[in-house]
Amino acid sequence: MSWGFLRDLLSGVNKYSTGVGRIWVAVVFMFRLLVYVAAAENIWKYEHDEFECNIKQPGCENVCFDHFFPVSHIRLWALQLIMVSTPSLLVVFHVAYRENREKHHNQKLYRNPGEIDGGLLCTYLISLILKTGFEIVFLVLFYKLYNGFKIPHLVKCDVRPCPSTVDCYISKPTEKMIFLYFLVATSCLCIILNLSELSYLIFKYSLKCYLKRYMKKQQ
């Protein structure tokens, strides 16, 4: 899979972000995207082939693997990366709309098309809410699908066509668990960053409105 488009998206968003937003971009790019491409993808690459059960009943290993891993960790992680990054496209599209509007009217309509104010502020806040929501949804999804944030060394399977309770072994469970904990930690960090940026922007906008009203009263 080529991740160039996601890298370009994060680079474009970085131009219109606040200080906290730039930290979020750095965390997603360095500690999630690069870790995924450089290491995590290879660890889960042959997870199905390396899943072994102590019986060679035809179809038993397949149904047991599907029962305990209905969705691959690494594919779900990839989907999470895409989903939490795409809301930032709203900001990029809004800035592009402002720039095209200025070209169409052939005049300066905004002090800076990329400045977070007015309608762009609303778009930015919506993107933060969506990113935070996606992060939480995927964390809950991981927890529900795999009965917690853990990779067991051994699972016992009694799903048909297995003739009895079968012991199945997962390859490199400790290594996979480390990356899973890393995934959860970076997701939580991104949630904290998104909520911090959301609070900062709301506080800044509220303070700006208050000062405007105060100045009008003084005049």
Automatic annotation (TrEMBL):
Which terms does the record give in the GO molecular function aspect?
gap junction channel activity
GO CC terms of this entry:
connexin complex
Q: Does the keyword Transmembrane helix apply?
A: yes
**Pfam families reported in the protein's UniProt record:** Connexin
Q: Where in the cell is it found?
A: Cell junction, Gap junction; Cell membrane
Membrane topology type: Multi-pass membrane protein
Alphabetical list of Gene3D superfamilies matching this protein: Gap junction channel protein cysteine-rich domain (1.20.1440.80)
Domain (Connexin N-terminal) ranges: 42-75
**Domain Connexin cysteine-rich: residue ranges:** 134-201
What this chain does, per the entry, is described as: One gap junction consists of a cluster of closely packed pairs of transmembrane channels, the connexons, through which materials of low MW diffuse from one cell to a neighboring cell.
Q: How does the annotation summarize its subunit structure?
A: A connexon is composed of a hexamer of connexins.
Annotated protein name in UniProt: Gap junction protein
- Its gene is Gjb7
